[in-house]
């Protein structure tokens, strides 16, 4: 498949901690007889990296960076549009235009900044190995040829192809070309990702009694290590248990009680924690992670509806992941008709909440009125960029399909009195260049923990049905 027909859901990011950006670690591996242990490297970036982070060429310390001419050709196909990837393409094109004002791009140009390497554009010349002959005439293989030729031209340098495309990395290695992922925004170990809550056994009975009687107790009565702010606990003694969370401002635990939210009642401790965070006016940013059927979207929506009087609008959004690599423009009908298939899961949750009440009830009618008056809106994320969102609750579903840069873009839209809720399952990703470590939801959980405005909960138990639980556990 030609590179310009790949899925357009390509990662972005802002803070860079790539393997390539840590050259001193790699340099030790190259030491040996006749080899300079501090030898510089040349990193060749493909299109997916530029669309992930338009400033990527600046993030390889003193090493040189190059892009094949094919990458410029592909970026030309991405420069028009309102998605993040289109913004990244335009910003990179502007960057190299400014960089090459007084020089030719086929020359090595010094990158701006202290201790930076150089930059150039590579031609697609085939060397002793021709990837287009081996694999076929595709853009990916022209990029491989550029890197292979550079490897021949600069034998004293270590040439590394950097790409988010796993298959391209494998093809490069098959041709004896070193290739790496661009690891911007990746967390180190997804198994150690912050969960937002803990269960403590053998808690003194008097502590649990104090929480029931007073609603609070000092944190040092439970643990000597202060937890993250807004961290939740299930505290158990021999006979009793209580739910609590840590209020860092007051340096104390506070009891968490179960409450209904627009007809929806939490069914387990984690759901209770999630709803508590959503309803807490202090907390402005919430993430809820869990497998299908754990109630992520339902709780977010129910909690938002319960607070409808405190906000002007409730927005529900989810990323539109094109089917079969086709944009929604291929679908029939107007924009509303095109988006309906993607937004149907959100409508399902709305209908579930609405069906908790009789059709003649005030709650049922109020929900219908909110939709008609656009107090409750379901919208694609593509329409959010550039807006300032004040006095709203913004629910972003399927956030695992967002990139770190997209998550940042959404949060920076927040105005006064805005609460943003991200929900998703980091193990259920539908975009080709993201995984459980590099998606925006994992990035948010890892970076935002311990901030007083943020709370996170990982939901563990499926509550949709016994049949859904069977699928999650056995299949």
UniProtKB/TrEMBL annotation:
GO terms for cellular component: cytosol. It holds the Pfam family PhoH. Residues 1-34 are annotated as: Disordered. Transmembrane segments: none annotated. Residues 41-170 form the PIN domain. It comes from the Bacteria. SUPFAM superfamilies: P-loop containing nucleoside triphosphate hydrolases, PIN domain-like. Residues 1-10 have a biased composition (Polar residues). Keywords: ATP-binding, Nucleotide-binding. One of its GO terms (molecular function) is ATP binding. InterPro entries: P-loop_NTPase (IPR027417), PhoH (IPR003714), PhoH2-like (IPR051451), PIN-like_dom_sf (IPR029060), PIN_dom (IPR002716). In the N-terminal section; belongs to the PINc/VapC protein family. This is PhoH family protein.
